[in-house]
Design goal:
two-stranded parallel sheet; mainly alpha; about 0% strand
């Protein structure tokens, strides 16, 4: 057990988590003060168009500054990759393949295997979820909830890196049509989203394990 091998480790983790939760708002407020000062005039203009309640949540430290960086500074973070055959998307696929190759080589050197799994983001799931991203400043392209560009990009990088790839995007989209699987402004799965993703991914993983005789 971990508490035998590393005495007090669990207690240390719990205490760190509590401290982190208690003070994260102060950290986020400080981050936001610094980030707002770095905005260009164009970025500041875009920031001013965002819902005042969202801006207030950012400056109060109640909303992750990471969403500010992407939604305000890089609003086309997702929409710029909607064209699978476009030169920018293909460049990023090549970069991803290089990282995948490095991971595969490290895994092989340590007698491990690698499986790449696509974890859905709401911006690719439904029009309703896209609106949450729009409130954060992201540019929205309706095609992102009907095509497979996000998974096709990963799959292409996996082929280049000779790695297996799994996705349950379409079944997650079906689930999103009738229920909320993501936190509105956090962009991550909520409890129900985690449950459904696990339920849909588990059979695929078990199938691979059985095929490998495990």
């Amino acid at each position: 057990p971990l508490d035998v091998v590393y005495p007090h480790l669990i207690q240390w983790i719990v205490q760190r988590t509590i401290m982190h939760t208690q003070h994260i708002d102060k950290v986020w407020r400080a981050d936001m003060q610094r980030l707002i000062k770095t905005l260009t005039p164009e970025q500041k203009s875009h920031y001013d168009t965002i819902d005042p309640t969202i801006r207030q949540a950012w400056t109060d430290g109640r909303l992750n500054p990471g969403s500010f960086v992407l939604g305000v500074i890089y609003p086309d973070y997702f929409s710029s990759l909607v064209d699978l055959k476009g030169p920018f998307t293909q460049m990023q696929i090549g970069n991803m393949a290089q990282h995948f190759t490095r991971i595969r080589q490290v895994a092989q050197a340590n007698h491990a295997e690698v499986l790449v799994v696509s974890v859905p983001w709401g911006i690719y799931m439904s029009a309703k979820d896209q609106q949450h991203f729009a409130r954060l400043g992201f540019q929205i392209d309706p095609r992102m909830v009907t095509n497979d560009v996000q998974d096709d990009s990963i799959a292409q990088a996996c082929r280049l890196a000779d790695l297996p790839f799994l996705s349950v995007t379409w079944s997650m989209r079906q689930a999103c049509a009738t229920q909320s699987l993501f936190y509105p402004l956090d962009c991550h799965f909520n409890a129900e989203g985690n449950r459904i993703f696990a339920e849909q991914m588990a059979p695929l993983l078990l199938s691979r394990l059985k095929a490998a005789g495990r």
